[in-house]
UniProtKB/TrEMBL annotation:
<feature type="region of interest" description="Disordered">
    <location>
        <begin position="79"/>
        <end position="98"/>
    </location>
</feature>
<protein>
    <recommendedName>
        <fullName>Cytoplasmic protein</fullName>
    </recommendedName>
</protein>
<dbReference type="Pfam" id="PF06242">
    <property type="entry name" value="TrcR"/>
</dbReference>
<feature type="region of interest" description="Disordered">
    <location>
        <begin position="174"/>
        <end position="250"/>
    </location>
</feature>
<dbReference type="InterPro" id="IPR010421">
    <property type="entry name" value="TrcR"/>
</dbReference>
<feature type="compositionally biased region" description="Acidic residues">
    <location>
        <begin position="240"/>
        <end position="250"/>
    </location>
</feature>
<feature type="compositionally biased region" description="Basic and acidic residues">
    <location>
        <begin position="215"/>
        <end position="225"/>
    </location>
</feature>
Length: 250
């Protein structure tokens, strides 16, 4: 499917130079009708210079004339042979210059927390080469001592949905998932959140599950050998100091 060059600038030009409705301009440029109305009101695309789609061979003037006469007419982008199958073109993901310095940290994070991912998957996620991934796996990268693992989603190098899809594909290829931690590494975020958590003690409490300060058997023996023949021993009343005080008062 052909796409417009500079759609917002094209919308600005159509609003300024034609009598098309907001709906027609929105359908042609791919914007919402309210956004086109904002362009007409001067609230949206302030300072954007109009881009003539007729002069740039994106549409014929005849289509614009028909659309101005009939509000129900929908304009179509002129076919461009050079743009044929442009969406099917494959290649490494483009990474902006401002984020390329963070790419090794993202690769280190993927290698550390998702070792099941293939080099081709990592290359597709963050836009790198296989030799770079291999050097980070083998810790032979020239800057490995200064690198820190950082989530590529947090760095803006890929989307969470793309990472989840790659992890789910790798999990399907590896087969069964064993521990709770490994299970969360090999599945997507949505699947991980739906899983039941395994009950576990805090690391600081491990080994103290049955620890007590006294032997419970000794307490039971003491209770069984206790003599409750009189009321004082049964109710565990204090000594006779209070009786002596009362005698002195009398």
């Amino acid at each position: 499917m052909a796409k417009l060059l500079h759609p917002k600038a094209t919308a600005v030009w159509l609003v300024d130079n034609t009598t098309l409705t907001f709906k027609q301009v929105a359908d042609f440029t791919g914007f919402h009708e309210l956004e086109v109305q904002g362009i007409a009101d001067g609230d949206v695309a302030v300072g954007v210079k109009g881009f003539d789609p007729v002069a740039n061979n994106q549409i014929d003037q005849e289509q614009i004339d028909l659309a101005e006469k009939s509000p129900m007419y929908r304009m179509k982008i002129k076919f461009n042979p050079a743009a044929h199958d442009e969406e099917k073109r494959r290649g490494p993901r483009y990474t902006p210059l401002s984020k390329r310095q963070d790419r090794p940290n993202a690769i280190l994070w993927l290698v550390k927390f998702h070792p099941e991912l293939a080099d081709s998957q990592i290359s597709k996620l963050v836009g790198t080469t296989k030799p770079t991934i291999q050097s980070i796996r083998e810790r032979t990268h020239w800057n490995i001592q200064n690198m820190q693992p950082i989530d590529p989603v947090a760095l803006g190098l890929c989307r969470q949905t793309e990472l989840d899809a790659a992890v789910a594909k790798a999990a399907k290829a590896t087969g069964t998932v064993m521990s709770d931690d490994e299970r969360r590494k090999l599945v997507s975020t949505e699947q991980s959140l739906e899983m039941d958590t395994e009950p576990r003690l805090p690391s600081s409490m491990e080994g103290l599950e049955t620890f007590t300060l006294s032997d419970s058997r000794d307490d039971e023996d003491k209770k069984s050998n206790a003599d409750y023949s009189d009321a004082d021993s049964f109710f565990n009343l204090p000594g006779g100091d209070d009786d002596e005080d009362e005698d002195k008062k009398d």
